[in-house]
Amino acid sequence: MLDSSKNLVKGRTVFITGASSGIGKACAEHFAKLGSRLIITARRLDRLNTTATELSAKYGIQCIPMQLDVRSHEQIEKTFTILAAEKIEIDILINNAGLALSSDKIQDGKLSDWETMFDTNVKGLLYVTKAALPFMLKKNHGHIINIGSVAGHGCYASGNVYCATKHAVRAISKSLRLDLSGTAIRVSEVDPGAVETEFSEVRWNDKEKAKKLYQGFTPLIAEDIADAVVYCATRPLHVNVAEIIVFPQAQASLTDIYRQGDTTKDVFAITKSKH
Fold this sequence. Notes:
By secondary structure, the chain is an alpha/beta fold. It has helices at about 5, 20-35, 45-60, 75-85, 110-140, 160-180, 200-205, 205-215, 220-235, and strands at about 15, 35-40, 65, 90-95, 140-145, 185-190, 245, 255, 270. The strands form two sheets. Strands 3-2-1-4-5-6-7 form a seven-stranded parallel β-sheet, with helices on both faces. It has a two-stranded antiparallel sheet with strand order 8-9. Strand 1, helix 2 (about 20-35) and strand 2 form a beta-alpha-beta unit. The radius of gyration is 19 Å and the shape is globular.
């Protein structure tokens, strides 16, 4: 990455949702290293406080932790009211907060799980984006980066509602680019394949089951996705990276992952995996 491109984010204010762990936390680290000012948000304030202290000390940047549940429109309004009062204007928004719950078939699904996924992955992203846009439109500058998923490019068995939410993220990202046409605001989407974070543990509330998902191949890690996010943000201002799909090398498609040691097929076979 050229030094001149790094300067595009130095001193810029980056707002990250879901920054207490995984991809969000890795994004915070990457942007802090490049000299950005950070606003990191999540529900777990204790983790945010620790991250903010560490990044500020390590990189000499300002890192503001703010407790935020993106499902709450009221909390989002309050957060952005505080930012406006402090005259803090957002340059880059990273809509990272998201989750999957269970892997039930539709006929067995829990309504509470469906509502949580839609409220977080879709409505939360919309709420935060709408709150951040006045900052960007006022100065005709900004970048919205949505963390989607390869699940937004297809469907897999028992992925039903989660896949639907990630298809919605793709539609929102595309629609944002259309609605913001004529402005200098960029919109990007980064869609990861199999990434080993707390994602699967949250999905099943089962550490061992989550661990088994990533056995037999080398999955992506949160830093791989953060690197893709930084790539989008550090392109020259006339360049808008609309979409990046990131697979681990062992993953060939949404549902196909080659696992070492699989005895049911030959060595070149691709085995099926839910993720």
